[in-house]
Design a protein that fits this description.
Layout lengths: L9 E3 L2 E5 L5 H10 L1 H4 L17 H13 L4 E7 L10 E12 L5 E8 L8 H15 L5 E6 L4 H10 L2 E12 L2 E10 L8 H11 L2
Parallel strand pairs: 5-6
Antiparallel strand pairs: 1-2, 2-3, 3-4, 4-5, 6-8, 7-8
Helix pairs in contact: 4-5, 4-6
């Protein structure tokens, strides 16, 4: 991967991004089970005729890390590290995945994310998306980050709105989500729009809001 070497660990405040590991299986299974109804409307699914996904969690971790080492994606687990509670162990609360990394004249990628409903509203996801975006711009040298969000997904829409991603329009029947082809709103950002870095801009806006 140009300008980096997987595994990559990023941290700021209470957010920690690190590769998903096989030993995370129990925590990941419990998290997905607890949030099944919360996440199902937004989960990617396999369209008819597509190859099935990984059969086990271990196979999923192996595939994700292999693709990361080839520079195709950045598959992070999101851990919450509560400040002010030194004895509290970090808790797995979601994922942030940079995928579709394209080099050449495009230098672009897409970013997707999900979070435990018990950890939502704490600023963890905007912080994590900002961390990932800055890494892609500053370390990988990418020039465009894109986010595709279903129009009905208000929680995800608030993340890109907080961070100032630019709305570019709607793509019809763009991704297979929750059993069918769904429309998505497209948001994007380039480094020229955040010369100070996205994380710094987010923290500045956050401090102004009190």
């Amino acid at each position: 991967m140009s300008g980096s070497q997987w595994p990559v660990h990023l941290a700021h405040g209470e957010a920690l991004l690190q590769p998903l590991r096989r030993r995370d299986k129990a925590a990941w299974d419990a998290l997905r089970s607890y949030n099944r109804d919360w996440l199902q409307p937004w989960d990617a699914t396999q369209p008819p005729g597509a190859e099935p996904g990984p059969p086990t969690f271990a196979a999923l971790v192996q595939i994700l890390n292999r693709q990361a080492k080839f520079g195709q994606m950045l598959p992070w687990a999101l851990w919450w590290t509560p400040q002010g509670a030194p004895s509290a162990a970090p808790r797995l609360v979601g994922q942030v995945t940079v995928s579709g990394i394209t080099r050449g004249s495009a230098q672009s990628a897409q970013i997707g994310y999900w979070i435990d409903r018990r950890a939502a509203g704490r600023g963890l996801m905007p912080t994590s998306v900002a961390l990932a975006t800055d890494y892609c711009f500053e370390t990988l040298g990418l020039h465009r980050m894109e986010v595709a969000i279903r129009p009905e997904n208000g929680n995800s829409l608030r993340v890109v709105e907080k961070l100032g991603f630019r709305h570019e329009g709607r793509r019809l029947r763009y991704l297979h989500i929750n059993g069918d082809w769904r429309d998505h709103e497209i948001f994007a950002l380039t480094p020229e729009e955040v010369p100070e870095g996205l994380l710094m801009r987010w923290e500045t806006l956050r401090s102004r809001r009190g």
